[in-house]
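Question thread 4412

I'm putting together a teaching handout and wanted feedback from people who do this every day. The idea is simple: show students a protein as raw sequence, then show them the structure tokens that encode its fold, then repeat with a second protein so they can compare. Below is the first pair exactly as I plan to print it.
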Amino acid sequence: MRDRLLDFELALDRRSNEEVAEHGWGIAFLSPALPLAWDANWALIERAGMTAEEVVAAAEESLAPYAHRAVAIRDEAEGERLASEFAALTGWEVERNLYMLLRDDAPIDPGGARETPLAGCEELRRELIRGEFPADLPDLEATADQLLEMGRRTGEAGGDRWFVAPREDPAAACCLLSAGEIGQVEDVGTLATARGRGLAKAVITAAIAASREAGHRHTFIVADADDWPRLLYGKLGFEPCGVLHVFRRPPPEG
């Protein structure tokens, strides 16, 4: 099932990125106009049996114009094999993205949020994005601009529907992307000053309700396998169904 959900995301990436470059080892998704958006410029390794050094070389080949490196390994077992190798490489970070699928019997209570077009929550989205980075990050505003633009492109590709909470003076948001019988809850965020009030739960359950009303057979969300939000998603009815390994090397400091 994880592969089917990953294919859903890859189809959106093909439609929202500026370039899709095919290589012998896999695919590079590129958006040269958005160089600060790491998730708009990354490589997917599809060839089995590569070493960490070969994966790094593929990243250097495909992402040479960019300061960062981001590489995902399509096969879960291959990703797990390479994770220990990348953990030993200086400057590289290992990320495990946990795919979680909504149970059919998950209870839904969408009353605490309201739906809005992206234009109606764009300033909130900008503030949420800023909050993901240190306040002294160089190019913070440019980074926020580019991530917002990438979000718009992905939303256009996936027919985004946005949900915010509380209904007045919103402090949390998320969106629902969809295609065919699949819906994805994405971009969940709550302002730091408003956490602990159940607002993330409110927007997620609203997105789940919208996904069910749309007739989606599968609704999923992706979480960091090592971070606490996965526990909230579990309480809301999402269950793990696989992992995607991503290896990142941030730009050098200074």
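The second pair follows. I'd like the answer to focus on this one:
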Amino acid sequence: MKKLIACLLGAGLGCALTAHAADELPPQAHPDSAKWEPLFAPDLANADFPKGIWYHEAGALTASQDAEIWSQKDYANFVLDLEFKTAPNANSGVLLYASDTKHWIPNSVEIQILDDWGEKWAKVPATWKCASIFGRLAPAKQVVKKPGAWNRMTIWAKGQLIYVMLNGELVTQCDMSKWTDPKKNPDGSDIPGWYTKPLAALPTKGKLGLQGKHGGAPIYFRNVKIKQLD
């Protein structure tokens, strides 16, 4: 009986450790998000966007113009899991912690989505590449797939800590508190002039959004799921 109890306790502890590992930071793998809540309802009833711009096409969410789609709910401490597919030269992004969706550029954190293979973007700064904290922190490596293939991106956001995993590799780790200068990154590189606030000053709760047909090339999203963390 003692052996059986020990076995059961051990199994329970194993389950607890496994559950904890799913939220462990820094993350080790993409999570199992199959049972998570979709960020946007199938009819987009819980989203804010210019009517007629965002729509579903062949099971994917896409936009006909350069306009954002936003959650109506504010989020803090979450894991956002999604798939995206670029067209050639696509330029888009996942937007976190937006406190002002009309003037979101200085009032949110953008996780860049880019066709790194496109000639149009061959000479842009490393902080513009796919999975970067746009304009602020370059990814450790470039792992985005060529246009037409689906990519998986998972974003962990807990307070001022942001982690980005792309196609199975943890490529971006950011502590917002280190960005205290609105004009310079911690490594001394320049921040784009349209940013007027340092990351350290931004709130860590706000709307989540997706950028539309920015740069003139389509972008497609599917399986956009979210899990809130403690």
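Top answer:
Good format. For the second protein you could add a caption like this: Confidence is low (pLDDT under 50) at residues 1-20. Residues 26-228 form a domain with the Jelly Rolls fold (CATH 2.60.120.560).
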